[in-house]
Amino acid sequence: MVRSINIEEITKNIREMCIEANHYLSSDMDAAMKQAEQTEKAPLGKQILGQLQENLKIAAEDMIPICQDTGMAVIFLEIGQDVHLEGGLLEDAVNEGVRQGYTKGFLRKSVVNDPLIRENTKDNTPAIIHTKITAGDKVKIKVAPKGFGSENMSRVFMLKPAEGIEGVKNAVLTAVKDAGPNACPPMVVGVGIGGTFEKCALMAKEALTREVGTHSDVPYVKELEEELLKKINGLGIGPGGLGGTTTALAVNINTYATHIAGLPVGVNICCHVNRHVVREL
Ligand code: SF4
């Protein structure tokens, strides 16, 4: 049986989710920040973690964005194949939701219409939209506004298969070291291993939306997440890049099949606000 959803529902939810994501730290990130403040060894690092949380608290209380860079709106849609969207085009509905969220929510408009002509579109559209068709009659929406302080520090490495797991670890650590303080640590590190050039980057991006504190279901990937988090926190970059034992709050890894001749690795770094809101319609 097909379930009809009016496209206006998509617009309304995305509008609300853009505002929510930009004003309130998600509960998983909040818990991770609190935990980091407890465990951080460097006095300055501890102090910075406290200040970052104070800033987040004031933002939530006074309805101020949690960061001045309110990001480019990245939207993941999982659409059940038994859903019929009616009343207009999905892409238009998503962009209208972003437009309304960013204008009605007084969020900074950070999108330019052309990468070289660079005129601001003044409503933060277009969004970056990733759509997947799934089983069932539900629509799952993830809104993840992405700031470019950390986006600019992200990388794709096309490794040779012989480089193996050590090559993967080296790639992730290289990306994090190169990012240093520029990605506003403590960071969340999204990693995509396998697939193709674009698939590994997309997996890394989506990995950032997985709840911090959860792990991959694949035993060796879970171990890799834990090992890399430990190694990253041993780099000493620390909160705000001013030194300490908390450089990252999580390493989230997604994997996919790949070609016999390749080992693509995408590393998408996100900062301590790592905005992500999920709803199911
Ligand atoms: S990287 Fe994150 S915290 Fe830093 S300026 Fe960008 S959005 Fe803000």
- In the residues, how many domains can be counted? 2
Helix content: 25-40%
What is the helix/strand order? EHHHEEHEEHEHEHHEEE
Output the number of helix runs: 8
List its traits.
281 residues; Dihydrodipicolinate Reductase, domain 2; 4-stranded mixed sheet; 8 helices; binds iron/sulfur cluster
Describe the 3D structure.
The protein has 281 residues and is of the alpha/beta class. It folds into two domains: 3-20 and 66-146, Dihydrodipicolinate Reductase, domain 2, CATH 3.30.360; 149-274, no CATH class. Helices cover 40% and strands 25% of the residues. It has eight helices and ten strands. The strands form three sheets. A four-stranded mixed sheet has the order 4-2-5-10. Helix 6 (164-179) runs parallel beside helix 8. The longest helix has 20 residues, at 43-62. The two termini are 16 Å apart. It binds iron/sulfur cluster.
